[in-house]
Amino acid sequence: MSETADTPLDLIIIGAGPIGLACGIEAKKAGLNYLIIEKGCLVHSLFRYPLNMTFFSTSERLEIGGVPFISHQPKPDRFEALEYYRRVADSWQLNINLYEEVTEVKKIDGYFSVTTAKSGYTSSNVILSLGFYDEPWWLNIPGEELPKVRHYYTEPHPYFRQKLVVVGAANSAVDVALETWRKGAEVTMVIREPGIRDSVKYWVKPDIENRIAEGSVTAYFNSSLKAIRETEVDIETPDGIVTIKNDFVLAMTGYQPPFRFMKQAGVTFQTDQYHTPVYNETSMETEVKGLYLAGVVCGGLKTNKWFIENSRDHAGMIIRHIKSN
Ligand SMILES: Cc1cc2nc3c(=O)[nH]c(=O)nc-3n(C[C@H](O)[C@H](O)[C@H](O)COP(=O)(O)OP(=O)(O)OC[C@H]3O[C@@H](n4cnc5c(N)ncnc54)[C@H](O)[C@@H]3O)c2cc1C
């Protein structure tokens, strides 16, 4: 279902992730004239997650709009989640324009002018449910532009019998290191910290620590990648620069919210280390009247503060506030 630019809207929701969809459902329930605009496919971030990933949440905690989420195991996988959110979009007949990137949000004379790559819209309210998965933390080192360097991981097969460097020590780096090693890659982890992070899932941490201790996975702690070339990389270690042979680099160094886009829309930020956006914690409204934040984007650089489970409620909070105005 696709919406055109002709009608002024009550609400535009930017981003069709789980939380953008939840906002759409609440808007529909409240009888608002709304449109969700998404630059990629439905739940684009989830679509790009590793193929074999399993959610850490049990399925009922990922439910939105009262649609039951049935999964084979208590914790669903990516395929089940994609199926589920497609079902949600269909069963609620949500108004979503897919593959339409929003390029600008401007408030003019009390209304938001929303410009996209395909069209333009006017709306009384806007929700930014933008997620954080589009902009990786770059390594900013020579060779990062080589095609063998990747910031997103999908599956282990391409790395079979390859010399692989995995950068990072959080959940995604550890998952990637273990999965690729188990599928025949020769894995070296390059880790800035002195150890695997405590935030790594408690059932996975001993696995990686034991693989490192037994020498199956090599790890350079207190170290960072300094340069990448076609067939080797330089690692700065406490003992000096070490150069090793290398075929691929997977930089699992995390992602950040689209701060520039948020700023141009009028969002302001605290001066804390997380660059946390300013918003009212009851209404989710920013300092711009009618401009709201929802989902993971609310945490700024603390991208593990808000996730699907604990930010589903943002939808109801926002729509109640819009209706009360
Ligand atoms: C490997 C992994 C496992 C996870 N497991 C869990 C779990 O078990 N439980 C849990 O609760 N959370 C989990 N999370 C976190 C969870 O997936 C995110 O918190 C969740 O996706 C946030 O939903 P969201 O709707 O806020 O953002 P997103 O899902 O990121 O959606 C944002 C959407 O906005 C779109 N967008 C961005 N900019 C624009 C623009 N300018 N124009 C149009 N569209 C735009 C994006 O394309 C995207 O589709 C996991 C995350 C990862 C990486």
Structure notes:
- The protein is of the alpha/beta class and 325 residues long.
- Helix content is 22%, strand content 24%.
- It is built from eight helices and 17 strands.
- The strands form four sheets. Strands 1, 2, 3, 4, 5, 6 and 17 form a seven-stranded mixed β-sheet that branches. A five-stranded parallel β-sheet has the order 8-15-9-10-11, with helices on one face. A three-stranded antiparallel β-sheet has the order 12-13-14, with no helix packed on it.
- It is elongated.
- Residues 14-20, 37-40, 43-45, 49, 53, 55-57, 101-102, 129-131, 133-134, 258, 261, 295-296, 307-309 line the site of flavin-adenine dinucleotide.
